[in-house]
């Protein structure tokens, strides 16, 4: 039975790297009819916060990465927070103590620091020298009675070479002589990461540990603990680092690293899933678009690269645009609504929405036709309110000079607007569709013997106040007859007033 897990420490917001690790664990489990588990590693009481745990779980839900066992869901190995599993660690620590595999270390922070400094000065690798490894029972008792506090160290066997075959990195070997007797617990009731993780992975029957490359150095410690208890060592797969485009480690300075910031920016979870899947994994051909369900079928650890994966924001934007284009209009509309509400353009009234400025009710069809204006144009949902401001604001603000197409004389532009005005007037409000508007306008432009640009450019600016926008036919039909006609009149006045008789 394949069982994978993600074991985030809730000491910060859900990091994009952790999200990628979660995705790969999830995909590997799904591909192999296995189980994906979320376990919260909150043994570091000072740094762990509920707020961060919530952020991680919300991020996973947003991505559509459902866990089979974990917080909120429960499961046969509950509880799934280390802070709630404390009682299960102590007996294992006692077992190690009984076998003399752990010993109390009374060295203070200052003493350890001093030792390290001396080693650095004499150009030796900094490590614990084993001061407390062989204290006699009476020496320990004396330390204890003098009130010295202690930690628990694991006794590393010397002169051994440990070897594992990592699913991504291949064979890895570790010489135990390079390892310190590391601290596995602050006390019998206060375990630390490398110890707690081994017990949890054993008790949760984890078959594959898939995690970031930064954990490679923990492999030998965890294997030795597995051996000490007689546990089967799980399989390992260490994922490549995620890098900034300049090949430095992904950092806040160059990219947003918290997953939900991407939601705020208007990225779709589908796009992030697709993008993150290709941060390290490749399908073996040049296909790029994959839904989560498709990835569940295609994913394999064999196709995960060893070398660092570059985080290319432009690529993410491209994926996002592809998913926006490919989405059904009702679905895209429901994704855009929160951004329009946030901007203050629309308000929710029960099941429907209305325009904030004039209280006009918007039907679902109207909302969809507004969103359709930008479906082919935006890369991020957050662009929606800004780009559609002309639909929701009462009065447009723009420079009259924008109405001038190329270097056409003002008089001709005025004439162009007149033609636009009369064409729009001739279409009844019921037949006010982009197709009818286009037919009528083009007919009149032709019979007036004018260039398209002289009419369509100022018309588009009159309707939107923008230099770039969708076609004037689509915009006019969304604005409706009354508002588009008014806007043409406003443009004429602007032209008169601002460029007028100068
Ligand atoms: N709590 C560790 C982390 O957040 C988990 C490491 C592991 O997967 O073993 O990095």
Structural write-up:
- With 502 residues, this protein is an alpha/beta fold.
- It folds into 4 domains: 3-82 and 242-310, 3-Layer(aba) Sandwich (Rossmann fold); 85-239, HUPs (Rossmann fold), CATH 3.40.50; 328-392, Orthogonal Bundle (Helicase, Ruva Protein, domain 3); 400-499, Arc Repressor Mutant, subunit A, CATH 1.10.10.350.
- The chain is built from 20 helices and 15 strands.
- The chain has helices spanning 16-31, 50-63, 86-98, 109-121, 137-145, 193-203, 219-229, 259-264, 269-277, 292-298, 313-326, 329-342, 364-375, 383-387, 389-392, 410-426, 434-448, 452-464, 472-479, 481-499; strands at 3-6, 35-38, 102-105, 151-154, 161-166, 170-175, 183-187, 190-191, 208-212, 235-239, 242-243, 309-310, 346-349, 352-355, 361-362.
- The strands form 6 sheets. It has a 4-stranded antiparallel sheet.
- Strand 7 (183-187) and strand 8 form a beta hairpin.
- Helix 6 (193-203) packs across helix 7 (219-229) and helix 17 (434-448) packs across helix 19.
- It starts with a strand and ends with a helix.
- The relative contact order is 0.08.
- The structure holds glutamic acid (GLU).
- Residues 7-9, 41, 197, 211, 215 line the site of glutamic acid (GLU).
- The site of glutamic acid has 7 residues, from loops.
Outline the secondary-structure elements.
Blueprint lengths: L2 E4 L9 H16 L3 E4 L11 H14 L22 H13 L3 E4 L3 H13 L15 H9 L5 E4 L6 E6 L3 E6 L7 E5 L2 E2 L1 H11 L4 E5 L6 H11 L5 E5 L2 E2 L15 H6 L4 H9 L14 H7 L10 E2 L2 H14 L2 H14 L3 E4 L2 E4 L5 E2 L1 H12 L7 H5 L1 H4 L17 H17 L7 H15 L3 H13 L7 H8 L1 H19 L3
Parallel strand pairs: 1-2, 9-10, 11-12
Antiparallel strand pairs: 3-4, 4-7, 5-6, 7-8, 13-14, 14-15
The structure holds glutamic acid.
Glutamic acid binds next to loops.
């Amino acid at each position: 039975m394949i069982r994978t897990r993600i074991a985030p420490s809730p000491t910060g917001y859900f990091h994009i790297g952790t999200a990628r690790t979660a995705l790969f664990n999830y995909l590997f489990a799904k591909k192999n009819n296995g189980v994906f588990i979320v376990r919260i590693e909150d043994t570091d009481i000072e740094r762990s916060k509920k707020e961060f745990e919530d952020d991680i779980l919300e991020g996973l839900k947003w991505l559509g990465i459902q866990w089979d066992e974990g917080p909120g869901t429960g499961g046969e190995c509950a509880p799934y927070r280390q802070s709630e599993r404390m009682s299960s660690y102590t007996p294992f620590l006692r077992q190690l103590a009984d076998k003399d595999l752990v010993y109390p270390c009374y060295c203070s922070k200052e003493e350890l620091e001093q030792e390290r400094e001396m080693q650095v000065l004499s150009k030796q690798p900094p490590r614990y020298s084993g001061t407390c490894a062989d204290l006699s029972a009476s020496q320990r008792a004396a330390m204890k009675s003098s009130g010295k506090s202690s930690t628990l160290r694991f006794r590393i066997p010397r002169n051994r070479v440990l070897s594992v075959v990592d699913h991504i990195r291949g064979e890895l070997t570790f010489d135990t002589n390079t390892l310190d007797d590391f601290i596995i617990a602050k006390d019998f009731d206060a375990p630390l990461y490398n110890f707690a993780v081994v017990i949890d992975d054993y008790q949760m029957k984890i078959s594959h540990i898939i995690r970031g490359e930064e954990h490679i150095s923990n492999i030998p410690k965890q294997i030795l603990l597995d051996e000490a208890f007689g546990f089967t060592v799980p399989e390992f797969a260490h994922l490549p680092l995620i890098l900034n485009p300049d090949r430095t480690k992904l950092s806040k300075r160059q990219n947003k690293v918290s997953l939900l910031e991407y939601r705020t920016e208007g990225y779709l979870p589908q796009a992030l899933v697709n993008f993150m899947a290709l941060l390290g994994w490749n399908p073996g051909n040049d296909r790029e678009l994959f839904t989560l369900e498709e990835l569940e079928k295609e994913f394999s650890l064999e196709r995960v690269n060893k070398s660092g994966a570059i985080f290319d924001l432009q690529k993410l934007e491209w994926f996002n645009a592809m998913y926006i284009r490919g989405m059904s209009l009702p679905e895209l509309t429901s994704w855009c609504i929160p951004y329009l509400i946030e901007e203050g353009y629309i308000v929710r009234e029960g099941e429907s929405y209305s325009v904030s400025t004039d209280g006009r009710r918007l039907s679902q069809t109207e909302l969809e036709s507004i969103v359709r204006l930008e479906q082919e144009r935006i890369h991020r949902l957050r662009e929606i309110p800004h780009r559609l401001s002309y639909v929701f604001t009462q009065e447009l603000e723009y420079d009259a000079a924008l109405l001038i197409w190329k270097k056409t004389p003002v008089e001709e532009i005025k004439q162009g607007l007149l033609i636009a005005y009369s064409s729009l007037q001739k279409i009844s409000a019921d037949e006010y569709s982009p197709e009818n508007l286009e037919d009528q306008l083009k007919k009149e432009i032709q019979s007036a013997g004018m260039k398209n640009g002289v009419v369509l450019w100022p018309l588009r600016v009159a309707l939107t106040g923008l230099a770039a926008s969708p076609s004037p036919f689509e915009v006019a039909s969304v604005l409706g007859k009354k508002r588009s006609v008014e806007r043409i009149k406003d443009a004429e006045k602007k032209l008169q007033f601002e460029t007028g008789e100068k």
